[in-house]
From TrEMBL:
UniProt keyword annotations, A-Z: Cytoplasm, GTP-binding, Nucleotide-binding
Lineage: Bacteria, Candidatus Scatousia
A Gene Ontology BP annotation from the UniProt entry: translation
Name of the gene this protein is made from: ylqF
Protein's name in the database: Ribosome biogenesis GTPase A
NCBIfam families: GTPase_YlqF
Superkingdom of this protein's organism: Bacteria
Main location, first listed in the record: cytoplasm
Subcellular locations according to the entry: Cytoplasm
Known function: Required for a late step of 50S ribosomal subunit assembly. Has GTPase activity.
Organism (species): Candidatus Scatousia excrementigallinarum
Listed PROSITE patterns: G_CP
Length: 284
């Protein structure tokens, strides 16, 4: 394997601001839906999620599960439910079969707080839920799925700023449609690199070429037969250069076109063309 020269950078100032915003919004809701990229069941969950949410009930959605192998991701559901003591559901943006299950579970998790409010003499109200998650894990697709049948804005509530609008999903559930964005504070560079693989980090933080090469090396370790068959590489080193040569992607002078090939490798992986993979390993 080549010397590791890839390093992912992020900015603490933005992190602190995002955390403050998230905590402000948490006081407005009964429960939280955390969206995780199913290809990174551990790395795409914010490391301090439990500390941020406190005792707020959480539903974990493994989104983009259609990009993973079914049996393997179902094993991850059991692992995460045990790890976080929270319900875990599979979902993807391509179908709405899971929609009613998500709504039902969100309402169920909100019920204890609603009951507590009613014991104080207040009338029952709909459950209020917020969607959180790292960039590009699919928060928007989840919100769009939940709001597809109802886009009725119900405006500001007491103690809620004017910018924070609510959407009524049905008479029992309201969604805060400005979802809290959990920032990326990843001291673990391995996790940060995996987030770059799935495009969950700003492209300003890295270059395609080293990211694509490290992705190839990881796939060659975990899913060697699939990645080698897809690119037609048998016994040679799994490298950007060799893939470029195999596809005859050359620049003037006959050198391999590294820039073009790296972009295609990342696209192939992110769109699930190479295969259905999970890059995290289950903890021992």
């Amino acid at each position: 394997m080549k010397e590791n020269k890839l390093h992912i950078h992020w900015y603490p100032g933005h992190i602190a601001k995002a955390e403050r915003k998230l905590k402000e919004q948490l006081s407005l809701v009964d429960a939280v839906i955390e969206v995780i990229d199913a290809r990174l069941p551990l790395s795409s969950s914010y490391t301090n999620i439990t500390g941020l949410l406190g005792d707020k009930p959480r539903l974990i959605l493994l989104n983009k599960s259609d990009l993973t192998e079914r049996t393997e991701i179902k094993s991850w559901v059991r692992v995460l439910e045990e790890k976080y003591k929270s319900p875990v559901l599979l979902c993807d943006a391509k179908n709405s079969k899971d929609l009613n299950i998500i709504i039902k579970k969100a309402i169920e998790l909100s019920e204890p707080r609603i009951q507590a409010i009613m014991k104080k003499g207040l009338l029952r109200r709909p459950a209020r839920v917020m969607v959180v998650g790292m960039p590009n894990v699919g928060k928007s697709s989840i919100i769009n799925k939940l709001t597809k049948s109802s886009k009725t804005k119900i405006g500001a509530k007491a103690g809620v700023t004017r910018q924070q609008q609510w959407v009524r999903i049905n008479p029992q559930l309201e969604l805060l449609d400005t979802p809290g964005i959990i920032p990326m504070r990843q001291d673990d560079q391995q996790a940060a690199k995996k987030l770059a693989f799935v495009n969950s980090i700003s492209e300003n933080a890295y270059s395609n070429e080293p990211v694509a090469q490290e992705l190839l090396e990881m796939l060659d370790e975990k899913y060697s037969s699939e990645v080698r068959e897809y690119y037609g590489i048998e016994d040679a080193e799994m490298s950007i250069e060799n893939i470029a040569l195999k596809r005859n992607w050359l620049i003037s002078g006959g050198a391999p076109d590294i820039t073009r090939t790296a972009a295609y490798i990342l696209r192939d992986f992110r769109e699930g063309k190479i295969g259905k993979f999970i890059l995290d390993d289950m903890e021992a």
